[in-house]
Amino acid sequence: MFLTGTQLKEVFLKAKKQRFGIIASNVVFDTQVRALIQGYAAVNSDGLMQMSTGACKYAAGTSQDLHIGAKMISAMVKIFSAQFPKCGIGLHIDHATPNYFDFIKFCIENDLVSSVMIDASAEKLEDNIRITKEVVELAHKYNILVEGEIGHIKGAEDEIVSEDELYTKPEEALEFVIKTNVDLFAASVGTNHGVTKGENVVLHLDLIKEIDDLLIKNGVERGLVLHGASGLTDWQQQTAIANGVVKINKDTHYQMDMASAIQEYWEKEKYAIVCPPDVDPAAYIPNKSKFDPRKWLIKGEEKMQNTVMEFCKMSGSANNSILL
Ligand SMILES: [Zn+2]
């Protein structure tokens, strides 16, 4: 079933207490929504769908109207997840920068989401705090959770970055959490997307613990979030969870699943839609039973479903739904 913000809060509190991680999965299409929700439900896990502003624009078609896109994705997630009463599914806005403030407001006021991320990490810390606080004040009126972030470097194309810029400073994390009152905090520990190309980027899993310990010591314990986690090993993710991470973002892995499963199908079934070189095109009849989109999209869907089931077992969220 679809989770309200209040229920999602309960999910993250349980995850933090028992030290397991909730897999947050980016979606655009109905095939992905089906695959993921079925996967979460199959292992009795709660889960979170995420829509980026780009995904919302894409979902709206040529109008690029992200309000339409968000309504569509939200409706899909709500309607589909209603089939699974023992599996809680939330919907989150991923990486909305400050220029999308009105969009965040629209999604909150129209009851489309359970949580939102305001990513003002490209701003100076004081501006990030001011903007994030504004989103928190609005969202909390509707019991919607807010994820904030500090520590991202500016510009993904920067060739040279200093270590200090890459990693979240624990004291800044503490200041940010106290001043903004965010529910979830994205720590920058070396996994940033757009930055992960650097072989000199080292994962600082101990930094997660340092931040978590500092927040707890100051009476402001929060769930920490790991971004750009598609390429990480099980051990790295499990260590991050043990150190305080409750939300693990996944996008790229599913994209690869979908592409590879469908590529495999078409490599085998090419001549169902392409005339073989030794056949007269006038005599060629394409094979409807093979090119029906339901026959090949399902391959990607099945692979994604299996992947999210494995993710939930790895992160410990399997058999831990608050609705069981
Ligand atoms: Zn991210």
TrEMBL record:
The active site is at 94 (proton donor). It holds the Pfam family F_bP_aldolase. Its cofactor is Zn(2+). It catalyses: beta-D-fructose 1,6-bisphosphate = D-glyceraldehyde 3-phosphate + dihydroxyacetone phosphate. InterPro entries: Aldolase_TIM, FBA_II, Fruct_bisP_bact. The keyword Cell membrane does not apply. Zn(2+) 1 binds at residues 95, 193, 227. It is an enzyme of class 4 (lyase). Binds 2 Zn(2+) ions per subunit. One is catalytic and the other provides a structural contribution. Keywords: Glycolysis, Lyase, Metal-binding, Zinc. GO terms for biological process: glycolytic process. Its EC number is 4.1.2.13. Transmembrane segments: none annotated. Dihydroxyacetone phosphate binds at residues 194, 228-230, 249-252. One of its GO terms (cellular component) is cytosol. It comes from the Bacteria. Zn(2+) 2 binds at residues 119, 149. The keyword Metal-binding applies. NCBIfam families: cbbA (TIGR00167). Belongs to the class II fructose-bisphosphate aldolase family. This is fructose-bisphosphate aldolase. It comes from Cloacimonas acidaminovorans (strain Evry). The lineage of its organism: Bacteria, Pseudomonadati, Candidatus Cloacimonadota, Candidatus Cloacimonadia, Candidatus Cloacimonadales.
